[in-house]
Amino acid sequence: MAKKEFKAESKRLLEMMINSIYTQREIFLRELISNASDAIDKIYYRALTDDNLVFNKEDYYIKVTADKANRTLTITDSGIGMTQEDLENNLGVIAKSGSLAFKSENEAKDGHNIIGQFGVGFYSAFMVADVVTVTSKALGSDQAFKWESTGTEGYTIEPCEKDSVGTEIVLKIKENTEDDQYDEYLEEYRLKSIIKKYSDFIRYPIKMDIKGQRPKEGTENEFEEYVEEQTVNSMVPIWRKNKDELTDEDYNNFYTEKRYGFDKPLKHIHIKADGAVVYNAILFIPENTPFDYYTKEFEKGLELYSNGVLIMDKCGDLLPDYFSFVKGMVDSEDLSLNISREMLQHDRQLTMIAKNIKSKIKSALQSLLKDEREKYEQFYNAFGRQLKFGVYNDYGTHKDVLQDLLMFYSSTEKKLVTLDEYVSRMPEDQKYIYYAAGESIDRIEKLPQTEMVADKGYEILYFTDDVDEFAIKMLMTYKEKEFKSVSSGDLGIEPDAEDKPSEAEEGENKELFESMSGILGGKVKSVRASKRLKSHPVCLTAEGDLTIEMEKILKAMPNGQDVKADKVLEININHEVFKSLKDAHKGDQEKLALYTNLLYNQALLIEGLTISDPVEFTNDICKIMV
Q1: How far are the Cα atoms of 33, 168, 459, 551 from residue 171, in angstroms, in the given order?
Q2: For residues 556-583, b (16+ Cβ closer than 10 Å) or e, as one string?
Q3: 489-524 pLDDT, tens per residue?
């Protein structure tokens, strides 16, 4: 029995496959089980064209057996088996796949699709084993053969005895080291968890001898151990079942079993796509925000299966960032995978699946908004911020996808409303969609700048998220209506005739405002008479694209951007305070400076901005009290 060298370009290739290609050792069991499933599938395909062969699914299985005493793990299947030539071709040539060759020659029928496409999967066994022994007897053959290898040194093949058709792979598990605990691959619970994670939906039963305890017959308090062969995989995935035979409880149970979250999903989306791209998917819109959702640690993505075998825990390419809250899975039969099956090639099919999923998610959210408003608002309170980030990110590329899903608190409706609902209620004479930004609804309602818009009977949207204004600036318009902050310089509203100052008053006031502007020394761009104030004496407004609220947000960011809005101090010329200003301007410049600084600091406080010198401010208050 001569040892043969691998028919590979070099031993280094196998070393790379064993040590570098796979990110997790546990993958070896997925690969060997997938190969075993392929072997059974091949009998099924043979039976389709061979009248002498009857395929009875109940006769076929995969068994995983651990022997701690001898440190062996055995994977047995009742599949088609391999001849000496098959062993030579499939196991002697690294990166050759018998399954791929078989798949290319046989079209999938009745939903049976070969899983394995890459020959390296078998060699992942050497990540955990010192010796791998394969004993196989091919269908229709009287002779069995044994293939054995210790890895890069080569392999041997010799005839052997085996009673039944199929393949048995025995792994001699490595000894533990200081860094690696190989014993785990001999533990019943660990093997079960790996099978459930990666191979739960293999269509054939995966069996294990499971230990248990039961009361000893004839005793009350004594127990005895027993071993029972059990099927540990589910076999039939929920996504392959017909939608009409599934209930909400079935979907909720699946959500819980897959540990997508500790909440209950607000909505599920079951997709069966059979067009240009073929895949199944079950997606969930969660009820609550994960604790780490708005952190860098959060990782988006859907579980990705290829023919029922888990390929990736989180495939981020399947979800746009703005829908990163969606949980669930996708199963496709013919994705282009790379050599280790752990990563995807970026191909047209993956792009098409992602595009289709994006469309389905948006439709589901629109349906929730239309038909189950309360649930949508619950969703929006949890994830609306992410939708607004989606509008803002990538220079507004996705705004058309997301704008109809946005909601903001309404000054008139006293609840969340959509932009469409706002526009549908606009009076004919209203030019803009008005909004006010602040830390809370309560603070916004008290802003002096809202007075004139509210008095006109116009609805105001309240922006309380730091991203709101930035998103709206990127949106620019909605249904041809421009957004306008109530703190903007021009509100597009003409004041009532009685509120307009005469030309003489405007000339007189001009000198006063120039004096006040000089006193403030560049803290504001200008001081002017307000067209928006009714009962309040003073307010700050902004000219240009950068608003006061945006300035506050940018300054509060970790990088502390030193930006300033072009502020304007607006004075209510119909307020009693204005008379005091005029009197001081005529005869007491010191008092004018005192009043000007007081009004400016009051305006800062109203906006939630920091007063540069709080001690001076309190002293100024004391001066007017004396």
Answers
A1: 13, 10, 72, 64
A2: eeeeeeeeebbbbbbbbbebebbeebee
A3: 788 887 665 556 566 666 678 889 999 999 998 899
Q: Is the pTM of this model over 0.70?
A: yes
C-alpha of 194 from chain center: 24
CA atoms within 13 A on the CB side of 335: 31
Backbone angles phi, psi at 408, to 5 degrees: -140, 155
Q: Could you tell me which residues come within 8 angstroms of residue 346 by beta carbon, excluding any fewer than 6 positions away?
A: 317
For residue 105, the surrounding DSSP H or E stretch is helix 98-105
pLDDT tens for 438-447 read: 999 999 999 9
Q: What is the pLDDT of residue 268?
A: 97
Q: What is the largest CA-CA distance in the chain?
A: 120
Q: What angle do CA 331, 289, 287 make, to 5 degrees?
A: 70
60: buried, middle or exposed (CB in 10 Å: 19+, 13-18, 0-12)? buried
- pLDDT above 90 (res 469): yes
Tokens of 123: 């060699």
Q: How far apart are CA 203 and CA 174, in angstroms?
A: 30
Give pLDDT tens digits for 289-320: 988 898 888 999 999 998 888 888 899 999 99
